[in-house]
Every structure is written in structure tokens, then in C-alpha cells.
Here is the input.
Amino acid sequence: MIAAIILVLAGLYCLARGVMDLRAKRWVWGVLGIVAGIAIMAAPIPTQVQVELPAAQGR
Here is the structure.
């Protein structure tokens, strides 16, 4: 769970930094920041989910 929060914060930072760079007319850094932010936010977060099914009863 903490990894997901860290990744979201990093993605938001990259997006914000990219927008700031675009406003300052640093086109390459701005585009790279936005692309990095989108890539971080779109990355799947692996989780471990364990589902236990009841044992089958013989008839």
C-alpha cells in the first residue's frame, strides 16, 4: 500500500514539474516530465491476493 502512495506522489510530481517546464518554454523537459508522470501513474502495481476456497466434500 505504501508503494502505491509513493508512486502516485512521484507521478504527480513529474506531471507538475512537466507543466512548469512547459510554461517556462523548456519544451523537451516539459514533455519528458509529462510522459514520465503518465508512465508512472499507468504502471500496474503488483499485489498479492490469496483466496482460500473451501475443500470439496465427497458424496
User: Anything to note?
Assistant: The longest helix spans residues 2-23.
